[in-house]
Amino acid sequence: MTAVRRTRRGVVVSFDEVEASLLRHLVGEVRDLLTDGEEDLLPAVRTGGGAGLPTDAELSALTGMAGVVDAETPDDPALARLLPDAYRDDPDAAGEFRRLTEGSLRRDKVGAAERLLATLPDDGPGEVRLDPENTELWLSTINDVRLALGTRLEVTEDMAEPDPEDPDAPAYVVYLWLTELQGVLIEVADG
Q1: In what order do the strands lie in the sheet with 126-130?
Q2: Whose CA, among 150, 185, 186, 189, lies 20 to 30 Å from 130?
Q3: How many other CB atoms sit within 10 Å of the CB of residue 27?
């Protein structure tokens, strides 16, 4: 299991080669799920250099409302779990809220995934040193990975562990590892 310890400067997480590779792959998959179909989730704000008023696209990018074509709940259950409806009993309010917030929520989640990936050891085993801000970022991203994987596996609170012969058994073990990693990070970060 991944070793996690607290220091005066934050949290240190030690990964072996398999764990680092697995986490890199899973976070990359969730990042890709969040960016699928989106033209530009991290828009660069360009300066007009005196060219006049900004275009609608530039205003959309500046306000964080770029990239959302419709206000529908995603068809993919894992993506719907990562980007849930704010108002379950009011589809119109949920759609309007989604229209206004989904672009920035996606960008925040993708940005957090990118930052986590940038801190992981490149090849082989290694340590990651996390200050409090990066610890929160890691916890949020690991939770997103757990939610997506748990949705794909149809994990419920009262489900039994799958039979070792079940083709989903290895993925369930990964889900349990992520759950334990998240729990240990929380425990160590809280002191």
Answers
A1: 3-7, 10-15, 126-130
A2: 150
A3: 21
**Tokens representing residue 121 in the block:** 């050891």
The answer to whether the predicted template modeling score (pTM) of the entire model surpasses 0.70 is yes
Our count of domains for the chain comes to 1
Q: What is the pLDDT of residues 78-87, one digit of tens each?
A: 999 999 999 9
pLDDT of residue 161: 82
What is the sign, positive or negative, of the torsion defined by CA atoms of 177, 181, 182, 184? Answer: positive
Dihedral angle sign, alpha carbons of residues 137, 140, 143, 145: negative
Tokens of 93: 């309010």
The C-alpha atoms of residue 120 and residue 127 are separated, in whole angstroms, by 8
* Structure-derived torsion over alpha carbons of residues 17, 143, 1, 150, reported in degrees to the nearest 10: -100
Strands (DSSP E) along 135-182, which ranges? none
d(CA 145, CA 115): 14
SS3 content of the chain, % helix, strand, coil (to 5): 55, 10, 35
How many residues are listed for the chain in this entry? 191
Contacts of 189 (CB under 8 A, 6+ apart): 6, 11, 132, 135, 139
Rounded CA-CA distance 191/186 in Å is: 9
Range(s) of the domain holding residue 77: 3-38+46-190
Residue 187 phi, psi (nearest 5): -60, -45
